[in-house]
Amino acid sequence: MRATTIERAQGAHPLLVWIAAWLVPGAGHLWTGQRLKGLVFLVMLPAMFAIGLALHGRLFPYELDQPLVALAAIADLGIGLPYLAARVLGVGGGDVIAVTYEYGNTFLIVAGLLNLLVAFDAFDIAAGRKG
Amino acid sequence: MIVRSHFGVLLIFAFFVSTVFAVLLRDDVREQVRFGAALFGAFVLGAYALGWLMYPLPL
Predict the structure, then answer these.
(1) In chain A, is it the N or the C terminus that has fewer CB atoms within a 10 Å radius of its CB?
(2) Are A41 and B13 a contacting pair at CB < 8 A?
């Protein structure tokens, strides 16, 4: 398993792996041969993002005059294609009077940040820094 | 989806975050399960402890 992972990782450019991992949660680990990890991320991270939307969370806009809102927007973007799909579909407007609004925001932000962490892990695997 | 229970949402959140961290930080499946369960327990117990610590504070 370890040899297979390293062999596969050597064939992939780390930056391309990072981009794939960012766009599709788990894709970086699938690409580098870590199938079980990749499948778990592929299921868990988009599910967490979807739950955030279902809890009436908001995909924050890029308002640079409000630094915390801008940071939340960057974190939201971390989930990759699900974020872009939500934007295209017009969901993620948020319902500020919903009981679960803040919980939804937390799910959306944490899903994005976790996916960025997963993407950097895939980058390290592809770069040969991790087995 | 209606999850109005704060504790219910906490459990769901703790489950997802614990699972992702366990799979990310451990390679062996048995270690992943053990680490994930410990993390999940820490999330839930930590939230309870913080909740009780904040209980006497005014809103």
Answers:
(1) N
(2) no
